Amino acid sequence: MSGDADAAVGTSLTAVAPDGVPVVTKGDDLAAVLTPALEGVVWPDGTRGLAEGDVVVVSSKIVSKAEGRLVAARDEAERERVIADETVRVVAQRPKPDGGMLRIVENRLGLVMAAAGVDTSDVPAGTALLLPEDPDASARRIRRGLHARTGVRPGVIVTDTAGRPWRRGVVDMAIGAAGVRVLSDMRGARDRYGRALQTTVIGVADEIAAAAELVKGKVSGRPVAVVRGMGHAVTEDDGEGAASLVRPPEEDMFRKGVDEP
């Protein structure tokens, strides 16, 4: 989105996380599983279900479960091997009080996350859940399925939770996307004082993901939310996906801790 398109940005958002999403298991068609809950969403104006311009935000956990990404992790040593298999580069590590090692790593998707995004919460004992193999492809499948079942072509974002350097707390971010303009490039637009913006590129998909997490979540049992009011960021085509949000190494000023010529 160029700076000129900022005039199309709305002034309000509504996010709803429906109840009624069943437990997801390997082989489930996520679009089929989610459609009844999404069609039951009631909006403040009394309307129901999905509309064009909505963004469906889905936790990567249920995507991974549907795609059979559950692996054995019967003890700490096996869990460490799983993390190592998903690791491309170790960014930082620190011993844990229990004798294990906390590792912040770059995983196969290019994401920098604790434990490579390997998750042992809300899964059977002795197992661990990997992130989807291709979250953008997962988002495209969900979008196609929802369109076929509802007649609406929403944007779809697949999210996962991660920490941020120098900030306490975790936030949800987009790791997969379809039909959503994931970045808004404001460079060249002018502020109210007439100054041209030089570097402002907004991570739209990540901001939608974080907003949706305020109403969904693993504890509440609501793994999906719908965000209304971001129609200006929803596209007819699937777009380049969330993979384009990963900063390439040549642009990463923090890769080695100092920017050297």
Task: Tell me the series of helices and strands, N- to C-terminal.
Answer: EHEHEHEEEEHEEEEHE
Q: In DSSP terms, counting alpha (H) and pi (I) runs of 4 or more, how many helices? A: 5
**Which stretches are poorly predicted, pLDDT < 50 over at least 5 residues?**
1-7
**The CATH H-level homologous superfamily of the largest domain:** CofE-like
Oligomer state equals single chain
CATH architectural arrangement of the largest domain: 2-Layer Sandwich
Silhouette: globular
DSSP strand count: 12
Report mean pLDDT, rounded to a whole number: 91
Please give the radius of gyration in angstroms. Answer: 19 Å
| Main sheet makeup | 5 strands, mixed
Structural class comes to alpha+beta
Which CATH top level class of the largest domain fits?
Alpha Beta
CATH fold annotation of the largest domain: 60s Ribosomal Protein L30, Chain: A
Summarize the structure.
GO terms for molecular function: coenzyme F420-0:L-glutamate ligase activity. The protein is α+β, with helices and mostly antiparallel strands and 261 residues long.
Considering the chains and any ligands shown, give keywords for the structure.
single chain, 261 residues, alpha+beta, 60s Ribosomal Protein L30, Chain: A, CofE-like fold, 2 domains, five-stranded mixed sheet, three-stranded antiparallel sheet, 12 strands, 25% strand, disordered N terminus, ligase, F420-0_gamma-glut_ligase-dom, metal-binding
